[in-house]
Amino acid sequence: MAMDFAIARLPRIEFGAGVRHRLPALAAGFGRRVLLVTGGRSLLQGPLWPELEAGFAAAGLDVIGHRVSGEPSPEAIDAAVQRYRDRNVSVVVAIGGGSALDAGKAIAGLLLPGNPVLDHLEGVGPERPYDGPALPFIAAPTTAGTGSEATRNAVLSTHGEGAYKKSFRDERLVADYAVVDPDFLATCPPAVIAGNGMDALTQLLESYLSLRANPFCDALALDGLAHARDSLLGLYRDPGDAAARAGMAYASLLSGITLAQTGLGSVHGLAAPLGAFFPVPHGVACGTLVAAATAVNISALSAREPGHPALARYAVVGRLLTGRAYPDDGEARAALVALLEAWTGQLDLPALDHFGITIGDHPRIVANSRGSSMKTNPIVLEDSEISAILEARQSASGPG
Predict the structure, then answer these.
(1) Would you call 210 helix, strand, or coil by DSSP?
(2) Are the CB atoms for 226 and 320 separated by under 8 Å?
(3) Sign of the C-alpha dihedral, residues 283, 288, 290, 296?
(4) Which residues share a beta bridge with 139?
(5) pTM of this prediction exceeds 0.85
(6) Most buried by CB count within 10 Å: which residue of 37, 74, 216, 357?
(7) What is the rounded distance in angstroms from the CA atom of residue 256 to the CA atom of residue 196?
């Protein structure tokens, strides 16, 4: 947590209600043929799509539509690259949740080179350097959670035997424009708001606690946490609340910026195998585990590294999220865990057994949790401590 730091490339950010109307002009700045990557149906069947479609037509753009259903797999990315690589695409525009944005990012990165994404996927295959070039890419999130519009990695998943969730990561994959319009959140169902919102909050928290934390990202993470505090529950109760929409869209954007620069922690370390081995949405995995992971991290730090600066940082977040000036750091940390537990309940985030996970599955999950995210957790957790996180959220009735 030293003063020395480097900040990698960020997109040009267009933020605010109505900025979606700038998408056609921004795309036209790169050429006339647009590959438009969207989710399966929510955008295309929603109330904002007709005006977006009309805007692209009015700008004289030739739009090729590509739908992404569920989390993108390497096979799906390769198929899209082969389908569109000879279509003279000028720019890739992705409008949707994290899956659509990740898919668009990966496709934009590979349409020109044309090689399989497995060549570059971390922890899978040969891990060859990515040389590019990438096509111009514009990302417009319709959910507030992943922050993918501001990151340099595309998360790809497989399921079944040998399942994994890994990243295709390079600074050249960063979007040229991140177009963040809070109005997209108005049609999000409460369950999506809950999972994605807790994902954003977790990313902000883990960025602030990361071993690679730095003063630049600290300021963004704390500001994002303040906006999540003031907006998440309000948006969950009323997606029509414009101020809450803006607050969570902003918090999510900041979470993407900070995670890209600092890395994450134990929650995201566990979310990867949970999402690969079981039908657990990424945001739900983060939201259901963040309170337990925070408690375990604090306990491990207190026992083995009581002078670690992360303990003071947890206290800072406890005071920030609760809005109370606890004089004692231990009290502030306890209040943080209690608040996160309360939010988990208020947002109706399901326990692990809801997804068919049993205690017997825990060893496999733990064994596959030590990916890149776990490497920046403030303390190296023992297997028993990682298991304790899972046990605390195994069932709604409590540990075990």
Answers:
(1) coil
(2) yes
(3) negative
(4) 94, 178
(5) yes
(6) 37
(7) 12
Segment holding 33, helix H or strand E: strand 33-39
Q: What angle do CA 340, 342, 343 make, to 5 degrees?
A: 65
144 phi-psi bin (left φ>0, alpha ψ -120 to 50, beta other): beta
Distance CA 234, CA 2 (A): 36
Q: Which residues of 84-121 are buried (b: 16+ CB within 10 A; e: fewer)?
A: beeeebbbbbbbbbbbbbbbbbbbbbbbebeebbbbbb
Query: Helix axis angle, 266-277 relative to 383-392, nearest 10°?
Result: 70
Give the closest residue to 228 by CA, choosing from 310, 142, 335, 347: 347
Cα separations (Å) of 268 from 62, 206, 227, 367? 39, 9, 21, 14
Question: How open is the CA angle 322-328-330, to the nearest 5 degrees?
Answer: 80
Is residue 208 within 8 A of residue 43, CB to CB? The reply is: no
Tokens standing for residue 340: 């996160």
Phi, psi of 66 (to 5 degrees): -140, 120
Q: Is the dihedral of CA 197, 201, 204, 210 positive or negative?
A: negative
10 Å CB burial of residue 224 (0-12, 13-18, 19+) is buried
**Which two tokens mark 16?**
């605010």
Count of beta carbons in the 10 Å neighbourhood of residue 50: 10
Q: Identify the helix (H) or strand (E) that includes residue 168.
A: strand 164-169
Angle among Cα 62, 95, 104 to the nearest 5 degrees reads 80
- Per-residue pLDDT in tens (0 to 9) along the chain, 400 residues: 557 888 999 999 999 999 999 999 999 999 999 999 999 888 999 999 999 999 999 999 999 999 998 899 999 999 999 999 999 999 999 999 999 999 999 999 999 999 999 999 998 889 999 999 999 999 999 999 999 999 999 999 998 778 899 999 999 999 999 999 999 999 999 999 999 999 999 999 999 999 999 999 999 999 999 999 999 999 999 999 999 999 999 999 999 999 999 999 999 999 999 999 999 999 999 999 999 999 999 999 999 999 999 999 999 999 999 999 999 999 999 999 999 999 999 999 999 999 999 999 999 999 999 999 999 999 999 999 999 999 999 997 654 4
Residue owning tokens 């340099």 = 152
Half-sphere exposure of 294 (CA within 13 A, CB side): 30
Strand order in the sheet with 177-180: 12-15, 177-180, 137-141, 91-96, 33-39, 62-68
